[in-house]
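fwd from M.: "can u put these together and see what the complex looks like"

so here's what she sent:
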Amino acid sequence: MSDGPRPLSPGIESAPAHVAIIMDGNGRWAQMRGLPRQEGHRRGLEALRRTVRNAGDLGIRVLTLYSFSTENWRRPKAEVSFLLGLLRRFVENDLAELHEAGVRVRIIGSRADLAPDLRLLIERAESMTAGNQGLTLVVAFNYGSRDELARAARALAADAAAGRLDPQAIDEDMLAARLDTVGLPEPDLVIRTSGETRISNFLLWQAAYAEFVFTPVLWPDFDRKALEEAVAEFHRRERRFGGVTEPTACNVGVA
Ligand code: FPP
């Protein structure tokens, strides 16, 4: 999938380890061209494939893509089944190539409402690529942070009720260990396309200290340049994780 690392563009010294993207604007992209929304999603899948390649080239270790939210079931039935079909097509058609490129696939979100054959496909994609050492591609499908947190709370409550856990001992690590993202690093950078500036129930726990970049680019147009611009913007930010900036030779004694 990648021809090996390419030189990074000026302004990009290194890539953030984990980039998460809210892929928005497929519908508007299609509408602006007088095309059905489905065509926007189809082109969105092409942008997704392109972004997986570009992320690998830039040295990003984990790429999380928000492809269907727990709220997206409210869309017209035809659009929902088209999006479910796109996920099926993506897993069926791209899995071999992703595996070959060393990509490890993880799917986060609730599996309870998914058709058994789709659940099997997802499980196969995860088990087949589990030992890969390249980019980790996390597809958030039927994902919503509140749902994920509620499921984690239910798991903690069940353990407590069964006497396996003292409720007083519950801490942040125990909750994080019951989230779908267990074992993954927290996102450093969250990008949302299409000019919207909402988080829309995406990685609410995990993105506590992420940097957010909002770009007007509609998702089907998201390309290497747009990804590099977001990474360059990330590097212009100062991350303090709730602390203060360490005094350095440059800022000590400066008013
Ligand atoms: C948001 O655009 C996009 C989605 C809800 C779906 C994202 C899906 C893809 C990128 C295609 C790949 C899909 C899978 C499942 C692998 P929107 O429709 O809300 O756009 P709008 O806000 O302009 O209407």
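replying to her w this: The domain at 18-146+185-236 is CATH 3.40.1180.10 (Undecaprenyl pyrophosphate synthetase).
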